[in-house]
Amino acid sequence: MRLGAYLSALAEPPLPVLITVTLFGWVVMLQEGHAQGMPEFLMAIQGNGYSQSSQALHTLLHSNLLVMVGWSWLIMLVAMMTPLLADPIRHLWVRSLPRRRWLAVVLFLAGYITIWMMAGVVLMLFTLLLWIFSWFPTLFVALALAIAWQTTPWKQACLNHCHWTPRLSPFGLAANWDCLRYGMANGLWCVGACWALMLLPLATVHVYSMLMVAIATGLILVVERYRPARPARWQVPLLEGIRLRTH
Fold first, then answer.
1. Cβ–Cβ contacts within 10 Å for residue 189, how many?
2. Which InterPro entries match (predicted)?
């Protein structure tokens, strides 16, 4: 019965379309050259001293590698974040006039992607600082941060806000602004919930290791997002999952 319920949920729009887009994102990431921007740069600075790492950073900022890094981040967002948008898109579709539905979705996505692209700059710079200055392996530090953030009430508070569905104006500039603002707000709360987990693929040097970490991270994000809102409190993630399964 539970399997039937899951299959029924997967068939409910817009999930089939979102799953298709997600799979497309993973296919693009798997193709040679589309997931190598950040790993290539990290390999360039791995094990180098401060001066050489600074030179590598200067090279990044003055070459097309920066474009490759941005493109890789965008494709990673498409692959990992698209399944999380079913409820917001469904809300936009139901609450918008028929002739405005696609515009509402596009404006929402514009706001959402803008926030995540800006967050990507911060996360990548933070990862680079870890590679250059950290005394510990970067992936170890990223994993410790992710586990620590998972235990905090602030993480759960951000997840709870991801379920927020605002009132939308029916037409005009007010409707456009509401959809754009909804995307930006949802993106901000999503960044708050997911930033530490998103460090994990960034902290992985080799391309295929990064892809495996990204897949595991994406599964965690989907499971978390589709849980109902819960009280924001300190928790141990593994024990919390066991507790939920036994109730």
1. 19
2. PpoB2-like
Give the C-alpha separation, 38 to 73, whole Å: 9
The one-letter amino acid code at 162 reads C
Asked if the model's pLDDT at residue 126 lies above 50, the reply is yes
Neighbour-count burial of 237, counting CB atoms closer than 10 A to its CB (0-12 exposed, 13-18 middle, 19+ buried): middle
* 247 vs 29 pLDDT, higher one: 29
Residues in Cβ contact with 5 at an 8 Å cutoff, skipping those fewer than 6 apart = none
CA distance 191 to 13: 25
Type of residue at 102 = W
pLDDT, tens digit, for every residue of 5-21?
A: 656 666 788 999 999 99
Residues counted in the chain: 247
Task: Answer whether 75's CB lies under 8 Å from 21's CB.
Answer: no
> What is the three-class DSSP state of 96?
coil
User: Nearest 5°: phi and psi at 7?
Assistant: -65, -40
Stated pTM of the model? 0.87
Contact 42, 8 (CB under 8 A): no
Residue with tokens 């006039």: 97
Q: What's the Cα-to-Cα distance from 189 to each of 39, 47, 156, 182, 196, rounded to whole Å?
A: 27, 35, 10, 11, 13
